[in-house]
Amino acid sequence: NAGVTQTPKFQVLKTGQSMTLQCAQDMNHEYMSWYRQDPGMGLRLIHYSVGAGITDQGEVPNGYNVSRSTTEDFPLRLLSAAPSQTSVYFCASSYSGITFTDTQYFGPGTRLTVL
Amino acid sequence: TQLLEQSPQFLSIQEGENLTVYCNSSSVFSSLQWYRQEPGEGPVLLVTVVTGGEVKKLKRLTFQFGDARKDSSLHITAAQPGDTGLYLCAGDYGTGTASKLTFGTGTRLQVTL
Q: I need a labelling partner for A24 at 20 to 30 A (CA). Which of A49, B24, B50, B68 fits?
């Protein structure tokens, strides 16, 4: 049971490049989400999904796309990277998105730098 | 956008000391969680509090949810170097079929020998 895995761990992009951050979980969790963590600002929700085929926007969705074709995978796409997207990105999952009495498990993060 | 303020932002204490970290909001939350995050890793859930006035204990850590469900505190007794890390509170202001977590800005704790 690997939990929540994220790839890559580190990435450097040039402004305007695109890339996909991968996230997978093997716990059969319905709820998955993406956060970014910036110094002094805590974690902010980008997008989330309550199940395969269903996604919704969080607090800071601009510049990011997501899809959820399977229960296990929830990739985050940057279509045209900007320096403001330099951050550490965390994927998380929990059994249910109805309430957070379920434990939410976080991946190890992807550190992204956009030059 | 809901805001969660944590205080203090930084705390450096010696082993054996006690400390309290605070988490305050202007909004009512249906539940509140506390996480600890170590460098290079994702946050790890410590506790979830749901009922106003609720107190939960996890070994030397005591968590309290305010009566009005707008604030919470984390008290550590006899801190140890292993307690070093970033402590985050996160509130759930779920408004429908899915809940969304709002995270505080964090309290960075360093415990030295």
A: B50
Strands A110-114 and A10-13, bridge-based pairing: parallel
How far are the Cα atoms of B9, B20, B89, B108, B111 from residue A46, in angstroms, in the given order?
24, 30, 18, 24, 33
CB A91 within 8 A of CB A7: no
What are the chain B neighbours of A97 within 8 Å (beta carbons)? 97-99
More confident residue, A78 or B96: A78
Closest-CA residue of A relative to B92 is A100
Residues 6+ apart with CB under 8 A from B83: B60, B76, B109, B111
Strand ranges (DSSP E) for A9-86?
10-13, 19-25, 31-38, 42-51, 54-57, 64-66, 76-78
Write the pLDDT tens digit of every residue in A41-91.
889 999 999 999 999 999 899 999 999 999 999 999 999 999 999 999 999
Give the phi and the psi of residue A49 in degrees, each rounded to 5.
-140, 135
Identify from A100, A102, A103, A110 which residue to disrupt to test chain B contact, counting B C-beta atoms within 10 A and taking the largest count: A100
Question: Would the CB atoms of A99 and B31 count as touching at under 8 Å?
Answer: yes
Cβ distance B103 to A44 less than 8 Å, yes or no, reads yes
| SS3 category, A84 | helix
Q: Please indicate whether, in this complex, the C-beta atoms of A100 and B42 are within 8 angstroms of each other.
A: no
